[in-house]
Amino acid sequence: MADAYAQAVSSLREQAERATDSLMKNGPRLLIMGGSGVGKSSVVNACFGRHVANVSHSIPCTSSISHFPPTERCPIHLYDTKGFETQSNNEDILRDLRQLLQERRDASASKSSLEERMAERLHAVWWVVDFRLEVVLFNTVAKLFEDDEVPIFVILNKCDRAKAEVEECLKATSDRCTGATAVIPVVAAAKHGPMLKLCEACDSEEILIMCNARKSFYVCQNSDCQQCDQQQKVKPAYGIEKLFEETTARLPVLVAKSFRQAELECFHDLQHNAHAIIVGFASVAAAAGATPAPFSDFFLLTGIQVAMV
Ligand SMILES: Nc1nc2c(ncn2[C@@H]2O[C@H](COP(=O)(O)OP(=O)(O)OP(=O)(O)O)[C@@H](O)[C@H]2O)c(=O)[nH]1
Ligand SMILES: [Mg+2]
Ligand SMILES: [Zn+2]
């Protein structure tokens, strides 16, 4: 019994290592853009944790774009753009974006297999905004990416404010940024309460918020709420899962796998998670009513893997 267990762990580890290699080779290429101080770094941290935002492993790509190559724990190529300035025409950034696009087209053209060519392309843009919107610049950039069919997701950050205010801004953003694939509200680093300042248990706006350096909670005042008068913790971030879902849905299947993978920071720690993985794996296989799929295919079952680890 112990032997069989050890064998299963070791076989899973081997398969996971192979899957990781392939994920790293085919990691999605994600470009982060946005004005200064809108929360680009906070969004990256909320999504990919501390495994990427480390400046020391970035490679200057152009003068205003840094490339963060994939790591074992975060198999994603991140291209981080210098925040643009409202007072400038941002010609330098536009020039660098053209250069990056060309570089990626050339890299793609140099490969022979479809799989490799696809892996070299830029796969998505995350355009982070807070409540100011650079519409002209956005539309210029959207045009730039149009030919390459790169989806642009506008991430409306700092949605830890009143619902009416956020909804108005979401509408204005969708109306004016016509080239956006989707506009997604998030709270990358909650400072003023939960998303939309709504109770997470009942959606009521009647909440009292207490956020300072030491405490971060709120109390729902709605007498029908199950959590009424209870302290509820303000989470570090909101809306990140939705952002992943929306982005994954638009990625080529090949790279979508590694994108989801980035969420599973602990995945490589197989020894630690072996038991949960084996239990999860067996139950998925049983539910599918088939012989167990190879581990790499298992990553396709994205909903399940998140629940599992
Ligand atoms: N209220 C609130 N503040 C946020 C949120 N996300 C980020 N911030 C704050 O916004 C400020 C800027 O965040 P950064 O992540 O450094 O923004 P950035 O776009 O990387 O900034 P630059 O790199 O300087 O251009 C910080 O003080 C953050 O704490 C959020 O969801 N809500
Ligand atoms: Mg930053
Ligand atoms: Zn409530």
Automatic annotation (TrEMBL):
Entry annotated with the keyword Transferase: no
Highest taxon of the lineage: Eukaryota
KW Isomerase (keyword) present: no
Domain G: 30-158
Residues in coiled coil: 90-117
Listed Gene3D superfamilies: P-loop containing nucleotide triphosphate hydrolases
Keyword tags: Coiled coil
Single GO term (MF): GTP binding
PANTHER family: ENGB-TYPE G DOMAIN-CONTAINING PROTEIN (PTHR11649:SF13), MSS1/TRME-RELATED GTP-BINDING PROTEIN (PTHR11649)
Protein's name in the database: G domain-containing protein
Organism field: Cladocopium goreaui
